[in-house]
Amino acid sequence: MDAEEGSPQAAFARFVRRAIDAARSQYGWTISEVAAHTGVGRSTVFRWLGGDWQDYPELAKVRGFCAALEVPVAEAFQALGLPSTAREPVPPRRPALPETGMEADIRVILGRLADPAVPAAEKKLIRDLLHYLASRPVRRAG
Questions:
Q1: Residue whose C-alpha is closest to residue 70's, from 20, 5, 30
Q2: Statement to judge: residues 65 and 106 lie in one domain
Q3: pLDDT digits 0-9 by tens, 68-116
Q4: Which span out of 52-61, 100-109, 114-123 was modeled with the highest average pLDDT?
Q5: What is the total count of domains within the chain?
Q6: How confident is the model over 4-25, as pLDDT tens digits?
Q7: In 3D, which of 58, 76, 57, 56 has the Cα closest to residue 66?
Q8: Average pLDDT over all residues of the chain
Q9: Contact assessment for residue 94 and residue 108, using Cβ atoms and an 8 Å cutoff
Q10: Which CATH number goes with the domain that contains 78?
């Protein structure tokens, strides 16, 4: 790692490593896939991992990285040593669905998946169940 231990670069590099490791175990994503899903360039991800930056990362990129990997942006800002005023959470994007029937259930599920307070284990359980339901064969009546 290029950054000095205890520096914002080293702390942010550890944060990025944990987030990428979690994405690898949850989704099987490579660093290239993390870059594609987060909108952060692959070379930028490698610079973040190496603590190889002089100017602070663009906050919009950090927020996008955190949102796509479902990690609290406040943790990233804390690792960067930013003041608490910069740690305001970005509200999750929610689809415009009516609040009735199945659509309401889907809204609740999407909300839980986007909520940084929901434990990763619960999010994994939700994803595993959705994957199971999506991949099982359709049973036809009759």
A1: 20
A2: no
A3: 999 998 899 999 988 654 544 444 554 444 455 777 777 778 778 877 7
A4: 52-61
A5: 2
A6: 677 889 999 999 999 999 999 9
A7: 76
A8: 82
A9: no
A10: 1.10.260.40
Print the SS3 string covering the chain: CCCCCCCHHHHHHHHHHHHHHHHHHHHCCCHHHHHHHHCCCHHHHHHHHHCCCCCCCCHHHHHHHHHHHCCCHHHHHHHHCCCHHHHCCCCCCCCCCCCCHHHHHHHHHHHHHHCCCCCHHHHHHHHHHHHHHHHCCCCCCC
Does the pTM of the predicted model rise above 0.90?
Answer: no
Look up residue 136 and give its two tokens: 């099982």
Structural domain span for residue 1 = 1-90
Distance between CA 29 and CA 25 in Å, rounded? 8
